[in-house]
Amino acid sequence: PPAYLYTTPPRPPLTSKMLTSLDALGQKTAHPPSFLSTFLGCFIGLGGLAFGEVFLRELCSPAPAALNISASPPASPPSAGSPAPPPAYLYTADALPNATSIMSAETCDELGFWLSDHALLFVGSFGALATLLFAAPAAPLGKPKNTLGGHTLAVSTALAIASLELDPVLEKILTPSLAIALMLQFKVVHPPAAACSIIFSSAVKDKFKNPLYLFFPTLLGCTWMLLVQYLVARSVHSSKSAGPAPGPAASRTVTIAPPAPAASGPDKPAFKVPTKGEIDKLRADYSSRKRQPDLSTMTSLDSLKLTLHA
Fold it and tell me: What is the per-residue pLDDT for 9?
């Protein structure tokens, strides 16, 4: 059998699948905004980021100093009159009220001081993002593809420029300019993403300029806001579909006027359709000529026949 019977049809690349999924999500998140939907969306979205930031800092806080979890029980036996040493389980993870303290100590050692004391989820650019998602959900620049792609591209550009250790003033100017140009080039223009890159480049403390800024708050915050927008859109559409049933239509009387009488006048002659023989004769007559026919010398019937033939 032919070789093409053993081949499989080409599959679309992963990026095209992701873009198609984001476009489908953008159609689902579009909804008619109202005062209530805008307020609830902004309140839940921004409130979740604010409380999530507090929770993240508490989760990554160091272990209490009162519990020395790195110590070990004394090897020498206690002397007569000295208090008995605490049980061995006090030097294990069971001594803590929960296991998150040991996990938080290890996590803070890995992620550094930035995550423990400077974890960010609530930044100023998310105010512009909330306005775009909940007050203008059908805006082209607020689609999920623009939101996620624009933030990823803008913050990645800011991280690359920060690694060059340029002059602070030059860095503040170059970062948003290059980020906006790249977003336009890749067709993911998103205004809050440019604001997010400016916040990164304007950070006073170097601890904020960490690669984790791409995940906390950028991608995590955008994902949360898009999730809230999707839930708000679902609730709006469900409330629209479950609205009160329309009442009976009001009766009305429609008066149809009689047709106007035809204007009196001489009867127009009936139109005569040329026969096939006449059209063939006309075609042969004009095909034998080397130039276009002179329309000024043609009769009205010849003009009609030529038009019908064309």
Answer: 55
